[in-house]
C-alpha cells in the first residue's frame, strides 16, 4: 500500500487529541460540502431557467430556420420543396414571411412584426395552443392573431368589428415619406384571437395568413422570407445542416432555436459564468479553512512526524502524507456536497418544493456536465490548497 496515503487516511478518520483541531476539521469539511452543494444547485437552476426560456420560444421559433444568405426574401420553387422533403430528419416545413409593419387602430399606431404563415405552420410550432382568447386564423383570410401586449396597447379585442384595424408597410422606393396615403401599402384585418406567451413576444408579433402578407408586401406567389423546419427528435442536427448545404449551395443561413434567441442565451450564459465564478470564490474561501486545518494538524502531529523522520522517512514523504490528507478531505467533502445537491434538485423536480408562482415551480435541471464541472472545480482547488498547506513542512519543523 502507498505509505503516505495509508497514514493520511489514518489521520483523516481518527480523532485528534485536541478538540479544537477536530472542530476546525469539521468546519473545514462542512464549508466545502456547503459550497459544492450550493454551486451545483445554482448551476442546475440556471440550466432549468435556460430550458424554461427555450420552452417559451418553442411556441414561436422552429427547430431550424432557413434565412436567405442575401437580401430579405427568396424564391422557393417546387423543385426546392421536393429537395427539402427528401432530406432525412425533416418532419415538416412551413413557408413564412416576416416584416416590420405599422398597426393602426382608430387614432393609435404601433410598430410590430407581422408574421405571415401557411397552414403547415401549426405542424412546425405550437402557437395555436397559446391562443388564450378567440381562435387561430383561417387560411386565405384577412384574419389575424395578435399578442396580448399589442391588443392592450392599441385597445382592441377579438371580433371587434366596430374598431377598424389596419396594417401598413412602406412601399419600396426613394424619397421622404410625407403622408400615409400613397406611400404605404395597407390592408384591413379582423383580429380573431389573442396569444399569451411572454411579455416580449406578446408585444412583438401579429400573425396573418401568408397570402395576406404577400399582398401587403407585393411579394410574388413563390416569394417568401424564411423557411421554418420541424426536425425529428432523434435526428442529428449537423447531418440535416450538411444535407441542406449540399442541396442548396450556400443559399441559406441556418439557425437553430438557440441561435434565433442568441441575445437571451448570451445573457443567460454570462450570468451563469458570473455565478460560477462567484461560487468558485466561495469555495476558495472555504478551502482556506482546509489549509488552516491541515497546518493545525501538522503542528499537533509534530512528535509523530519526528518519530517517522527518525525511522528514515524523508521530509518529501511526510509532505505527501498531509497533501493526501487535504486532498482526501476535499474530495470526500465535495462528493458529499454534490450528493446533497443532487437530492435537493431531484426533490425540487419531483415535489416542487419551491415555487416562483402559485402554479409555477422553480425550474431546475439535472445535467451530468454540471456534476463533472463541480467535481473538477473542487478537486482542482482542493489539490492546490493541500499542496500549499503541505509545503509548510520542513526538516527544521519536524526536528523542532
Description:
With 400 residues, the protein is of the alpha+beta class. Helix content is 52%, strand content 21%. It has a six-stranded mixed β-barrel. It has a two-stranded antiparallel ribbon with strand order 2-10. Strand 13 and strand 14 form a beta hairpin. Helix 2 (19-57) packs across helix 12, helix 2 packs antiparallel against helix 13 (368-390) and helix 10 (262-300) packs parallel to helix 13 (368-390). The mean pLDDT is 91.
Distance between the termini: 29 Å
- What would the principal axes of the Cα set say about the shape? elongated
Rg calc = 32 Å
Q: What characterizes the major β-sheet? A: 6 strands, mixed, barrel
- Low-pLDDT regions: none
Q: Compute the average pLDDT.
A: 91
What does the secondary structure layout of this molecule look like, with pairings?
Blueprint: H1 3-13, H2 19-57, E1 64-68, E2 74-75, H3 78-85, E3 90-105, E4 108-117, H4 121-124, E5 131-134, E6 143-147, H5 148-154, E7 165-170, E8 184-195, H6 199-202, E9 205-209, H7 210-217, E10 223-224, E11 226-231, H8 237-248, E12 252-256, H9 257-260, H10 262-300, H11 302-310, H12 315-351, E13 355-357, E14 360-361, H13 368-390, H14 395-399
Parallel strand pairs: 4-9, 6-8
Antiparallel strand pairs: 1-11, 1-12, 2-10, 3-4, 3-7, 3-11, 5-8, 6-9, 7-8, 13-14
Q: What features would you highlight for this structure?
A:
21% strand, 400 residues, 14 helices, alpha+beta, 6-stranded mixed β-barrel, 2 domains, 52% helix, two-stranded antiparallel ribbon
Provide a compact summary of the structure.
The chain is of the alpha+beta class. Helix content is 52%, strand content 21%.
Amino acid at each position: 500500500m502507498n505509505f503516505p496515503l495509508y497514514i493520511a487516511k489514518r489521520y483523516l478518520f481518527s480523532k485528534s487529541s485536541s478538540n479544537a483541531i477536530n472542530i476546525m476539521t469539521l468546519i473545514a469539511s462542512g464549508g466545502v460540502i456547503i459550497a459544492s452543494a450550493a454551486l451545483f444547485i445554482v448551476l442546475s437552476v440556471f440550466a432549468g431557467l435556460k430550458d424554461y426560456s427555450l420552452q417559451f420560444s418553442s411556441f414561436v421559433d422552429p427547430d431550424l430556420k432557413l434565412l436567405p444568405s442575401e437580401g430579405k426574401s427568396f424564391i422557393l420553387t417546387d423543385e426546392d420543396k421536393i429537395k427539402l422533403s427528401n432530406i432525412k430528419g425533416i418532419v415538416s416545413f412551413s413557408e413564412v414571411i416576416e416584416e416590420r409593419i405599422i398597426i393602426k387602430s382608430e387614432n393609435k399606431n404601433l410598430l410590430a412584426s407581422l408574421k405571415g404563415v401557411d397552414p403547415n405552420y401549426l405542424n412546425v410550432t405550437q402557437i395555436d395552443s397559446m391562443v388564450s382568447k378567440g381562435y387561430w386564423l383561417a387560411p386565405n383570410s384577412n384574419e389575424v392573431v395578435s399578442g396580448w401586449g399589442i391588443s392592450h396597447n392599441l385597445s382592441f379585442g377579438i371580433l371587434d368589428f366596430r374598431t377598424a384595424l389596419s396594417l401598413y408597410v412602406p412601399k419600396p422606393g426613394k424619397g421622404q415619406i410625407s403622408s400615409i396615403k400613397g406611400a404605404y401599402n395597407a390592408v384591413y384585418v379582423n383580429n380573431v384571437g389573442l396569444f399569451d406567451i411572454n411579455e416580449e413576444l406578446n408585444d412583438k408579433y401579429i400573425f396573418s395568413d401568408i397570402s395576406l402578407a404577400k399582398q401587403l408586401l407585393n411579394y410574388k406567389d413563390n416569394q417568401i422570407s424564411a423557411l421554418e423546419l420541424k426536425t425529428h427528435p432523434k435526428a442529428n442536427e449537423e447531418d440535416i445542416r450538411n444535407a441542406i448545404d449540399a442541396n442548396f449551395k450556400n443559399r441559406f443561413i441556418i439557425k437553430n432555436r438557440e441561435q434565433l434567441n442568441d441575445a437571451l442565451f448570451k445573457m443567460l450564459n454570462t450570468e451563469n459564468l458570473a455565478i460560477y465564478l462567484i461560487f468558485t470564490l466561495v469555495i476558495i474561501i472555504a478551502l482556506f479553512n482546509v489549509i488552516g486545518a491541515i497546518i493545525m494538524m501538522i503542528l499537533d502531529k509534530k512528535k509523530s512526524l519526528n518519530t517517522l523522520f527518525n525511522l528514515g522517512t524523508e521530509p518529501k514523504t511526510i509532505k505527501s502524507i498531509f497533501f493526501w490528507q487535504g486532498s482526501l478531505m476535499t474530495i470526500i467533502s465535495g462528493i458529499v456536497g454534490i450528493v446533497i445537491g443532487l437530492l435537493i434538485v431531484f426533490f425540487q423536480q419531483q415535489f416542487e418544493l419551491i415555487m416562483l408562482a402559485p402554479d409555477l415551480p422553480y425550474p431546475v435541471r439535472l445535467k451530468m456536465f454540471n456534476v463533472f464541472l463541480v467535481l473538477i472545480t473542487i478537486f482542482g482547488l482542493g489539490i492546490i490548497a493541500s499542496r500549499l498547506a503541505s509545503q509548510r513542512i520542513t526538516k527544521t519543523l519536524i526536528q523542532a
